[in-house]
Amino acid sequence: MPEYMLSVNHVENEPTPTAEETQRAFKEVDAFNTRLQEAGAWVFAGGLMPRETATTVDNSNGDELVVDGPFAETKEWLGGFWVIEAPDLDAALRWAHEGSQACAGKVEVRPFQAG
Amino acid sequence: MTAPSDFDAAVERVFRDEFGRVVASLARRFGDLDLAEDAASEALAIALEKWRDEGVPPNPGGWLTTTATRRALDRLRRESHRDDKQQQAHMIHDPEPHEPTGPVTDDRLRLIFTCCHPALAPEARVALTLRLLGGLTVAEIAAAFLVPETTMAQRITRAKRKIAGAGIPYRVPGLSDLPVRLAGVLAVLYLVFNEGYLASSGDAPVRRELSGEAIRLTRVLRSLLPDQPEVTGLLALMLLSDARRDSRFAGGDLVPLRDQDRGGWEQALIAEGHALVRECLARERATGAPPGRYQLLAAINAVHTDARDAADTDWAQIAALYELLVRIDGSPIVRLNRAVAIAELDGPEVALAEVDRLGPLGLDRYHAWHATRADLLRRLGRSAESRSAYDAAIETAGNEAERAWLARRRDTLVGGAPESS
Fold it and tell me: Which residues contact residue A51 at a Cβ distance below 8 angstroms, ignoring those fewer than 6 apart?
C-alpha cells in the first residue's frame, strides 16, 4: 500500500494561537489520530519541538561537522507530520482534509518512494 | 483513389475521434500513460503510411487500438530489463478490477477525470486533456497557448510524472465526489473553449480549432454522463456561443451582440443549443434540482439567440437568470454581467451604481469593467468620463480586435475630450 507524508508547517510571523485554540487543536488532532488508527491508515505521527532546538550535522565528507540550528533559515519550517497508508492520492487527500481541519493549518501531501 | 487533401481530412477526423479512446484503453490495460500515449502516436504514424496505400479500413478505431496494443507490447518486451522500481515510477494507479462488474465504463471517462484532477496545476489539466483525449500534438497545444513547445512538453511530462508518482487514481470518482470533480472537468473544457473563442492574447482573434475541440470533448462527456445536466448545460452554452462566432468579427473588428447580423448566426447550432436548454428545463421541473452555472449561462444565451433583433431581447428574463447565477457565484464578474442586464431593464444610472461598487473588488484591472462603465457613462451623456473609461479599457484589453473596437467607440463620443473639458 502506498504511503504518504502529511506535513504541517509553521510560518514566520503567524499569529500565536490562544491557549484555548491550542487546546482545541490538540483534542481534534487526538481524535483524528484515533480515526487514522481505527481505519488502519496510521503509520506514524508526531509534532516537533521548536526549530531553535535543531542541530545540523554534516558527515558527507567524513568531517563529522555539527552546527547549531536548522538546515536552512527559512520562512516556513516543519512543525509536525503524519505518515499514513492510503490506496491512492484521492484517499490521502481526504485524510489530509481532515488533518488540516483538526490542526487548523495547511497540510502538504507527498508520496513516499515506492518500496 | 481519394485526393491527398480529402484523405488527410478523413484521417484527421478518425484520429481526433479515436486518439483519446486508444490512449484510454491502453492506459487501462498497461497502467502506464506514457506508454499509452507513445503507442497511440506510433499507431497513427503507421496508419498514415498504410492507409494512404490501402485506404481507411472499415473499423479504423479497432485497427488503431490493435496496432497500438502491439506496439506497446513490443516496447514492454524490449524494455523488460528495466528494473521493477523504474517501471513502477511510470505506473498509474488503477484501483478497480479489470473485469467490469456493472455497466461497462468507457475508459475515456477515467482518463478525463485523471487529466482534470485538482491535484494537477490548472494549465497542466488543460494541456493533458488536449494531448491525451484530444490527440492534439504538443506543438499544436503550445501554439494555441502561445508558449514555447519545450515549455508545453515539460508541462505535460511533469503532469504525467505527478499522476504516476503521487498516485492520482485512474478512476471515475465515487458519487459523493462526483459533483465537485465533474465541476473541475467542465471548468477545463470551458477554459479550452474560451481560449479558442475569446483568445485572451495574441493577434488571431479566433482560434477555432480549440473551441471545436472543446465542443467535441464535451459531446463525448455528455455521451458518457447523459444524466448530468451541467454537462448538457455546458454543451448548450458552447453551441449557442459558437453559433455567433462568425458574426462577432467584421474585417478583424469586434461586433458587439446588439449590432451583430443575426442572419449570420448558425441556425443549426442554435436549434441544437435550444433543444439542450429545453432538456435541462424539463429535467429541472421533474427533479426539482436547481440549475447549475452552465445551465444558467446556457439559458441566458438561449434568451439572446431567441430574440429576432436586439430590441426584442427579453431583458427581464436575462436579469432574472443572472439573479439566480449571482446566488451560486457572487463573483464580481457575474455581478458585472448582471449589471449589463440591469442597464437595459432599469436604466444606465442604476447599473452604473452597481458597476462602480465592483471596481474596488479587483475588476478595475479588467477591460470589460472599464468598457461597461464607458458605455453606461456614454448613455448618461457623461462624455469626458466615458472617454477616460474607454482609454482604460483599451489599455487593459488583450487583443487587437477588441482594442480597435473600443477606440472606434471612444472616437464617436461627442465633445468632452480631455483637452476641452
Answer: A10, A69, A70, A77
